[in-house]
Amino acid sequence: MTRESRALEIRGRRFTLGPRSWLMGVLNVTPDSFSDGGAFLDPAQAVDHGLALESEGADIVDIGGESTRPGSRPVPEAEEIARVLPVIGGLRRRSRVLLSVDTTKAAVARAALDAGADLVNDTSALRADPAMAGVVAASGAGLVLMHMRGIPLTMQDAPHYDDVMGEIMGFLDERLRAAAAAGIPAERIAVDPGLGFGKTFAHNLEILRRQEDFHALGRPVLLGFSRKAFLGAITGQPPAGRLEATIAAAVLSVERGAHILRVHDVGPVARAVRTAEAVLAAGEARS
After folding, report:
1. Domain residues for 14?
2. pLDDT for 44 beyond 90
3. What is the pLDDT of the chain when averaged over all its residues?
4. 156 φ, ψ to 5°?
5. pLDDT tens-digit map of 87-99
6. Is pLDDT larger for residue 115 or for residue 33?
7. Which of 53, 69, 181, 273 registers the highest number of CB atoms within 10 A of its CB?
């Protein structure tokens, strides 16, 4: 397929995504995230890891202080702020890499943006906190709107769709319109179909297989498949052993035109993705 470019405006800067896919490096400062919970609770270690992600090729570092793994429970906003703020501040002082805060809480987003974050990655797509849209609108920050059926505590309790692709597309389109009504222009938004968030194994494979459909929304498409359980179901590997499966999903997604890939293992994925892009570019140059 022809890899379509999309513009994304973040705090007054305009970026073009595609044909080069961006990599969003995952930095969880939580004790209970499904893959690396507890590994970066110390702010100094977390900052060092964020800098390492940047050096490995991350275009964005996504800092999260509340786990959204299946069955997880929310944490108080003060605790979430205490987890993410030292890391965002530490990275901002030492790096110019784009920083994203992974939160559904307006107070956390406001504190993070004040500390130097550039984007808000809201897994609730502005539904969890009525004040979130206003915070994002006023800040000029970028925004990721993600589809999730239910909430993390219950999202994997027998999720059902009559038309998984159509329902996710309809949801994201409605959320884009809600964001626009709140003063957030579409040019500042990326969309995420929410792999693993209220989806069965079959749903996740269908989303990956048909991900080109989401380009009809006209916004950059972000995919977060890194180390997830459906990849473990294919390979029989625990989270730490799912690198090859993650790389396979990344290369497939690049071929299908994904704009942003949210991954834990930035270095290996970056090498695979840049190789795939070089091959695709050579083919497009000959056509």
Report:
1. 6-286
2. yes
3. 94
4. -100, 15
5. 999 999 999 999 9
6. 115
7. 53
User: In this structure, is residue 247 part of a structural domain?
Assistant: yes
Residue 50 is part of a domain; what is its CATH number? 3.20.20.20
Q: Over the range 207-224, which residues count as b (16 or more CB within 10 Å of their CB) and which as e?
A: bbeebebbbebebbbbbb
Return phi, psi of residue 197, to 5°. Answer: -105, 90
Q: Which of 175, 171, 178 is nearest to 199 (CA)?
A: 171
Q: How many domains does the chain have?
A: 1
Structure confidence at residue 273 (pLDDT): 98
Distance from chain centroid for Cα 56: 18
Beta bridge partners, 64, equal: 28, 102
Q: Which sign, positive or negative, has the C-alpha torsion 246, 249, 252, 257?
A: negative
- Within a 10 A sphere around the Cβ of 168, how many other Cβ atoms? 26
Does residue 47 belong to any structural domain of this protein? yes
With H, G, I as helix, E, B as strand and everything else as coil, classify residue 23.
strand
103 Rama class: left (phi>0) / alpha (psi -120 to 50) / beta: beta
By annotation, the residues acting in catalysis are: 228, 262
Would you say residue 28 lies in a domain? yes
